Amino acid sequence: MRIISGKYKGRRITAPKKLPVRPTTDLSKESLFNILNHQFNFSELNVLDLFSGTGNISYEFASRGSSSITSVDGDLGCVAFIKKTAQEFDMDITAIKSDVFKFLERSKAKFDVIFADPPYDMSQEDFERIVTLIFENDLLDEQGLLIIEHSPHTKMDHLEHFSSNRKYGSSIFSFYEYEQVETDEEDEDDE
């Protein structure tokens, strides 16, 4: 995998072959970060990377200036690899070994961006449970964005807070956010 942009642009990171992962492709990752570039100032983001695997998405946020990144994965090998890589690159990434659902049930922190890349063969119910837990436990900032990567076999557009999705190859990114209420300041100024 390679880092697409920012401080570490072009750097290659080689994960051990034995890790149980399916990293987000460079094309999908580049498309996702093009969307995020228009919405966020990366240096101000508090990021949560769920089912983080090799840390591919976390490294991209760190390279673009995010200094508060939490990576959660249930595999000890993945967490150890993220810790080692973050230390080598001097990235501020906190890697936590935990069942993602238990983490979401216990966490009290709020995040600006939450990215989840569960195994594509995870059940529909568990995909939906990620969205439910995040909004029920108020883990997303009011202006924040939840992104779930999934295959076309998993349907995510019927859930509350769904805003849009984008398809890249065999991956779909579904986006969730709180509905933004527009204030009509211009009308008040006219009075």
From TrEMBL:
Domain of life assignment: Bacteria
PROSITE patterns: N6_MTASE
Alphabetical list of Pfam families matching this protein: Cons_hypoth95 (PF03602)
GO molecular function annotations of the record: 16S rRNA (guanine(966)-N(2))-methyltransferase activity; nucleic acid binding
EC number(s) given by UniProt: 2.1.1.171
Catalytic class of the enzyme: transferase
InterPro entries associated with the record: DNA_methylase_N6_adenine_CS, RNA_MeTrfase_RsmD, SAM-dependent_MTases_sf
Keywords: Methyltransferase, Transferase
NCBIfam families, sorted: 16S rRNA (guanine(966)-N(2))-methyltransferase RsmD
Protein name: 16S rRNA (Guanine(966)-N(2))-methyltransferase RsmD
